[in-house]
Amino acid sequence: MLSTTRSPFSVADDALQAIGNTPVVRLNKVVGPDSAEVFVKLEYYNPTGSYKDRMAMAMIGEAERSGALKPGMTVVECTGGSTGTSLAFVCAVKGYRFQVVTSDAFAPEKLRTMRAFGADLVIVPSQGRKITPDLIPTMRERARELAQRPDAFFTDQINNPNSIRGYRRIGEELLAQLNRPIDAFCAAVGTAGMLMGVSTALREAGQTTRVVALEPASAPLLSEARPGPHRVEGIAIGIVPPLLSSTAYDEVRTVEESEARDMARRLAREEGIFAGISSGLNILAAVRLGQELGPGHTVVAVACDSGMKYLAGDLFDSTETT
Ligand SMILES: Cc1ncc(COP(=O)(O)O)c(C=O)c1O
After folding, report:
1. 111-117 mean pLDDT
2. b/e map of 3-12 (b: 16 or more CB within 10 Å)?
3. Are residues 76 and 202 in the same domain?
4. How far is CA 305 from CA 40, 41, 102, 115, 246, in A?
């Protein structure tokens, strides 16, 4: 698994060892004067620029350990690109073929990056490049068909509890880095692996952190049992994710996608944090929690992935205002 003791001056045996141990930074400009301190864990420091490297490594590592994945087999997954990129990266280093079911609804860079790591892409066409509620189920069905082959191993990120194991390290690292009580933690939910992993680590460490699950306001499935279209890649996948346990979080909040996008742009301009749309959503919710809790408290959110993954889209198009 990942090393907990790696010195910044040590040499890694391979690129997989560069996963994890990401920086935590305090927000200074996008928080108000009477706010709690708000910290962001910069998960874009992982090798493929996203926290998904942690879960890809955990899912492949555990499958190897259990004997479900053996040399010569093909790994199969259905993904909007971030998990696919991370799995493609881990499979490249470990020498597995990787077949990925994806869609043109996701950022073209993500699709190209998966190809760059040697993945074989199966594209499911979307309606107007939107993540409609039926898109992910259609992609999953196609992946399940492909995974029928005897030499295929379906990582099945939506149901695979090993992803939670991979994400626990985010919580453990946060506790070690901040070395103080964490009053609130918020995270947008896709598979819910990250929220579950961090929540588990915080609670096992005896923290009484308020854990807040987030979703786009146009797709309030967890809060109002109503799915809907949105363009926040990686989250609000049209079903209540099987890994999500209602005991792991205290509250669900919605965030307007336009405000999340605006926050992603502000983070780059004002804080030097160049991250994607779900990161903007997480951090906007954290800033609001910080305002509610006030000075003397600590709020934490995660920057899920790098803004580099969104350069071909409209997020950082200077003509877009909100
Ligand atoms: C960019 C991005 N943000 C957030 C998430 C949500 O993370 P999780 O699946 O752990 O809930 C994902 C998942 O794919 C993602 O790709």
Report:
1. 93
2. eeeeeeeeee
3. no
4. 12, 10, 18, 18, 25
Cα–ligand 1 centroid distance for 233 (angstroms): 8
Average pLDDT, rounded, for the chain: 93
Pocket test for ligand 1, best of 278, 283, 284 (most atoms within 8 A of CB): 278
Query: Is position 193 within any domain?
Result: yes
Tell me which residue has its CA closest to atom 13 in ligand 1.
234
Q: Which atom of ligand 1 is nearest to the CA of 196?
A: 10
Tokens of 287: 């800033």
Would you state the pLDDT for residue 4? Answer: 52
Distance 12 CA to ligand 1 centre (A): 27
Q: Tokens 């093909």 belong to which residue?
A: 74
Domain boundary (154, 177, 200) is at 154
CA distance 40 to 304: 10
Q: Is residue 315 part of a domain?
A: no
- The CATH number covering residue 94 comes to 3.40.50.1100
CA angle 204, 208, 212 (to 5 degrees): 100
Which one-letter DSSP state was computed for residue 305?
B
Q: Under a CB-based contact definition with an 8 Å cutoff, are residues 158 and 6 in contact? A: no
